[in-house]
Write a structure and sequence with these properties.
- By secondary structure, this protein is an alpha/beta fold.
- The chain has a single domain, classed as TIM Barrel (Alpha-Beta Barrel), CATH 3.20.20.
- The protein is 47% helix and 16% strand.
- It has an eight-stranded parallel barrel, surrounded by eight helices.
- The longest helix has 20 residues.
- 41% of the residues are buried.
C-alpha cells in the first residue's frame, strides 16, 4: 500500500488520472510520470478484470496508488478487485445511503463487513502477509463513492456520514446530465450541487473529489476545498499526442 488514504485524511491535495484503455503498457507509462494516484476504469474502460491484474502489476513499481472503478456496488465485483491488490475502490452512482452502506460492507472483512476471506491472493502476497493485510485493511483501503445524480444530492449528508466512505467523488458529466444542464460546469445548479457535496463531506470529516476536463480549472476546484482531483486519461494522452504530432507534421509539409 502506498498510503493514499492516509494522505487524503491528512488533507493533502492528490492528483490523479484515468486509465481506460485496459493496457498494462499505458498503465506503466502513466504510473512512471508520477501521478499520486491512477484509476483503472471498469465501468466505461476497455478492459476487464483480467486486464486489471496486469495493470496492477505494471503499476507496482511506480509511486502511483492504484484505484479501480468497479461496474456496480455488487460485493463480488469489489471483493475480486481488492483481492487483486487495489489500494481503493470507486463505485459509480451511489445514489443513497443504503447503496453506500452496501459498498462499505463489501470493502471490509467481518464483523464490520462481508468481504470474503481468502489468504492465497495477490493483495496479501499469496498468504505471506495476510495477518498484516487483514489488520490494516480498514486503515489503508480507500472507499470512494460517486455523487452523480439528483437522488444522491438528496442523500448526500447521510452518505457522507457513513464510516468507510472516505471520499465523495463528483461525476460532473453524469451530474450535469441529471440536472438537465449537460456539460455546463459553470451553471449555478452544478455549482450548488458541488457546494452541497463539499459541505456534507466537510461536516462528516470526509474528502471530496472530482474529474476535471481542463487542467486550468484545477485552482478553482482546489480553492473550493476539493482535494482529490483527476484530469485526463491514457486514451486522452494518446489521442492528444497523435493529433499534436500530425498538426506539426502537416504544418511542416505546407512550408
Amino acid at each position: 500500500m502506498k498510503g493514499l488514504k492516509k494522505r487524503i485524511k491528512q488533507g493533502e491535495s492528490v492528483l490523479g488520472c484515468w486509465l481506460n484503455l485496459g493496457s498494462a503498457l499505458t498503465a506503466e507509462i502513466v504510473g512512471q510520470t508520477g501521478f499520486d494516484w491512477v484509476l483503472i476504469d471498469l465501468e466505461h474502460g476497455a478492459g476487464n478484470e483480467k486486464d486489471v491484474l496486469a495493470q496492477l502489476q505494471a503499476l507496482n513499481a511506480s509511486n502511483s496508488a492504484a484505484l479501480v472503478r468497479v461496474e456496480s456496488s455488487e460485493h463480488q465485483r469489489i471483493h475480486r478487485i481488492l483481492d487483486l491488490g487495489a489500494e481503493g475502490i470507486m463505485v459509480p452512482h451511489v445514489d443513497n445511503d443504503d447503496i453506500a452502506k452496501k459498498v462499505v460492507s463489501g470493502l471490509r472483512y467481518p464483523p464490520e463487513g462481508i468481504r470474503g476471506v481468502a489468504k492465497m491472493v495477490r493483495a496479501s502476497n499469496f498468504g505471506k502477509s495476510f495477518d498484516d493485510y487483514h489488520k490494516t485493511a480498514n486503515e489503508n483501503i480507500l472507499g470512494v463513492v460517486q455523487i452523480e445524480c439528483l437522488e444522491a444530492l438528496d442523500f448526500v449528508d447521510e452518505i457522507a456520514a457513513i464510516d468507510g466512505v472516505d471520499v465523495l467523488f463528483i461525476g460532473p458529466a453524469d451530474l450535469t446530465m441529471s440536472l438537465g444542464i449537460f456539460g455546463q460546469f459553470d451553471h449555478h445548479l452544478f455549482l450548488d450541487a458541488l457546494n452541497k457535496t463539499i459541505t456534507a463531506a466537510n461536516k462528516a470529516g470526509k474528502a471530496t473529489g472530482i474529474l476535471i476536463f481542463n487542467p486550468d480549472d484545477y485552482k478553482k476546484y482546489n480553492d473550493m476545498g476539493i482535494r482529490m482531483i483527476a484530469c485526463g486519461a491514457d486514451a486522452t494522452f494518446v489521442v492528444e499526442g497523435a493529433r499534436n504530432m500530425l498538426q506539426k507534421l502537416t504544418a511542416q509539409k505546407a512550408l
